Amino acid sequence: MELLERRRALIEERLHDVVEGIDPEALSEEVRHVTLSGGKRVRPMVTILACETVGGTAEDAVEFGVGIELVHTASLVVDDIIDRSELRRGTESAWAAFGYGPAIITSDGLLGEAFDLFAADPDAMRAVTDAMVELGIGEATELSAQPASEAEYMTLARRKTGALFRAAAELGAIAADSDSETVEALGEYAERVGVAFQIRDDVLDAVADAEELGKPTGHDAAMERPSVIQVTDLSPEEANARAQSEADRALAALDRVEAADPEASTYLRQLAEFVVERER
Fold it and tell me: What's a single GO BP term from this record (predicted)?
């Protein structure tokens, strides 16, 4: 756990540096509010652990890890506007704190800072761009053409959540100069972890306590959003079993990767197990 904390501290330190360097001060304050108010930092940790698994270092991957966290945070700002959610990570969401216009500008600012971190590497830019295209399709689908079956839901989950997870792992492999097969295997691992994460998130929205979760619950049902509980006839227990299946397939993809650092690989395995068991 000490080594995980060192990696997390590296991410937090670089995040602070990026945020503090933003001008003007009003934008920096808004970005600081949404970026430094907490969060699990799952995606940047995936980036660093993927890099270390195939022989790179945390320092090799931290820029890309911070970049993907900024992209993720930008997407949350927009999600909260769409959902009219006033709470995020236990504090006020961007639009609730600053208004709709400043929140949109905050999202734009986050994306600008993120792409500055990817700009020097064409492969990194491609991985993130592909993920954002998928994310955009997923968000549009959620608003305009809701899925009507479990298969359609899974496609949406892959686009809405799995794509950024995939990019996170691919970025780690790219930072370590991995071959295309390794990049793909780590990408598949992370995409399936992301889908499992989304399924579990939907279950928690349906059954968890809002105070313990750190954000409002019941939004999916109230807004008729396409959660796994709303789209399918699955019970929460059955949905959790689907999440477990995705986690198992993630581990099978990870098995295709030759691990230069078994400890980092073990942490990736533990993450696939954690996402289906988490309570927050």
Answer: isoprenoid biosynthetic process
